[in-house]
């Protein structure tokens, strides 16, 4: 068993940025998880990032580690906007960031997290145990995929969720129905079409909302009317991108209203020409039920007032994510119940701390408290310095009250809940 002040669970953009900040502050910590796992394994090769290059930086405690710095070092042409950052380049950038600013990342999973005598005990997939005073959960969208009830009973080989897409080679020459009208649905449809599959998008919306291509040179007036921000153009985007602390001050009803109305289904500008007139799209379409017939999925779809049937070799649910902390199987029941305040949503303090002192949540699962920016890498700008400052400060206070030695550390208990 080893002791540490802080454990970060997750080695994606959020966990890595926080680790860089803790390291810079000299806070004893360990970071667990497979480096950039979701981006390396569960996103399709050839994907382009939806976020602009300037909004895709992991947040460093000092200058010199942005996507722009990375491109300069590697001799890659860089544009803050309109560059359409390839997935592979972003992953390489993040690994470069980790190599320079983050200490050793332990590529293990936490299989159990529980409280013992006011500390946290973590059981790891390699059989080891850790005791920590502070734990930060930075697990991204893992476990939050939302599949419509109509598709839930289908055998796995006929249905999948867009959260887990690596190589799409299996789909060549196949009919693939994609349910959803957002970036994931549109992006997958373009890649599938280009590799020789026949994608068919079924979306509830009456049309696709396309983001406009950013213009590099704009007049001052145009910039005043609609400033460029991490989440897109406009004053509303600017506020939501730069002031997550203000969002945190709002009451629940306001937060929910903003979350509902912000950044709904839409497609990046660079997808427009790859999708329009190339991919079949059925608008105002909702899947009512699904069955398997003759080794194919048959979807009953309500399109306008008509029910039609759509047949495919496979159906992909590109239907988004819903935060529910209870989906994290490694959390002990008492922790899961205590932090899942509002139907699975964690209610966080202004320092990202949950109802359980010393337990923090950052990344997409903190969006209910800090707004839509937390669903994007851009949110690391606010989360990592804020949490690092709070942890460093409270550990200092704790250190004067209690000196933690191996002799008085809580004993590990049996795990396997
Ligand atoms: C298809 C797609 C495209 C996207 N495009 C963009 C984009 O263009 N721009 C943008 O800003 N955002 C984008 N996002 C959102 C983006 O994925 C998230 O904002 C971001 O990855 C969240 O980072 P994170 O560090 O919280 O988690 P992740 O990057 O998901 O990392 C999770 C980490 O947790 C670890 N882990 C998981 N389980 C355990 C466990 N039990 N124990 C220990 N470690 C564990 C994993 O190994 C991994 O290291 C996209 C999302 C999807 C699905």
Give a structural overview:
The protein folds into two domains: 2-144 and 322-408, 3-Layer(bba) Sandwich (FAD/NAD(P)-binding domain), CATH 3.50.50; 149-209 and 264-317, FAD/NAD(P)-binding domain (3-Layer(bba) Sandwich). It has 14 helices and 19 strands. It is α/β, with parallel strands linked by helices and 417 residues long. Strand 8 (175-179), helix 6 and strand 9 (198-202) form a beta-alpha-beta unit. It is globular. The strands form five sheets. Strands 1, 2, 3, 4, 5, 6 and 19 form a seven-stranded mixed sheet that branches. The protein has a five-stranded parallel sheet with strand order 7-16-8-9-12, covered by helices on one side. It has a three-stranded antiparallel sheet with strand order 13-14-15. Flavin-adenine dinucleotide binds next to helix 1 and helix 2.
In short, what is this structure?
The chain has 417 residues and is of the alpha/beta class. Helix content is 29%, strand content 22%.
Write the layout of secondary structure elements.
Layout: E1 2-9, H1 13-24, E2 29-32, H2 37-41, H3 67-74, H4 87-101, E3 105-106, E4 110-116, E5 119-124, E6 129-137, H5 149-152, E7 159-161, E8 175-179, H6 183-194, E9 198-202, H7 220-225, E10 228-229, E11 232-233, H8 235-242, H9 244-249, H10 252-261, H11 272-275, E12 280-282, E13 285-293, E14 296-303, E15 306-312, E16 314-317, H12 333-339, E17 340-342, E18 345-346, E19 359-361, H13 367-370, H14 380-401
Parallel strand pairs: 1-2, 1-6, 2-3, 6-19, 7-16, 8-9, 8-16, 9-12
Antiparallel strand pairs: 4-5, 5-6, 10-11, 13-14, 14-15, 17-18
Helix pairs in contact: 1-4, 1-14
The protein binds flavin-adenine dinucleotide (FAD).
